[in-house]
Specification:
mainly alpha
Length: about 60
């Protein structure tokens, strides 16, 4: 598989995870630009980062 295609797939998966986490946190703001959503705060970004790390750790554990 071409590296460019793999990177595109990884990007799509990452964006999908971000939307999934945002929806769980109640931040489903539709078509607002990221600059506007950015004003909702670093705390939300911190929560999303923690969730992504937890998901990654679970994936690593399950692959062993």
């Amino acid at each position: 598989m071409d590296k460019k295609i793999i990177k595109q797939e990884e990007r799509k998966q990452s964006v999908a995870k971000n939307y999934e986490i945002a929806k769980e946190l109640g931040i489903d703001k539709g078509d607002l630009p990221s600059r506007v959503i950015g004003y909702y705060g670093g705390a939300i970004g911190g929560l999303m980062t923690r969730r992504l790390i937890e998901m990654g750790e679970k994936n690593l554990i399950n692959k062993k």
